[in-house]
Amino acid sequence: xxxxxxxxxxxxxxxxxxxxxxxxxxxxxxxxxxxxxxxxxxxxxxxxxxxxxxxxxxxxxxxxxxxxxxxxxxxxxxxxxxxxxxxxxxxxxxxxxx
Length: 98
What we know:
Blueprint: H1 3-18, H2 22-35, H3 40-52, H4 56-75, H5 81-96
Helix pairs in contact: 1-2, 1-3, 2-3, 3-4, 4-5
C-alpha cells in the first residue's frame, strides 16, 4: 500500500470508529497493520475500537504493542514530545483496562 493509500485507509478506519462502526474500524486497522505492523496511529485506533466492543484482551494487546514500540522510539532517542505524550496516554489506557 502506497503512503497516500495508507493515509486514506487510516482516515477511513478512524471515521468508522467515530461513527460507531467498530467492527469495520477493527478490520480496517488490522489491514493497515498487515502493511505496517508499527503504524502508531493504527495500533492506537485498533486498541480503542477493541475497547469499544468490550474486547479488553485485544485492547490490552494492541495498547501493549504500542507502548513497547513508543518506549523503543524514546529509548533510541528518536522521540518527539508527541511520542512521549502518546506513551502517557497509552499507559493510562492500559491502567484503565486492569
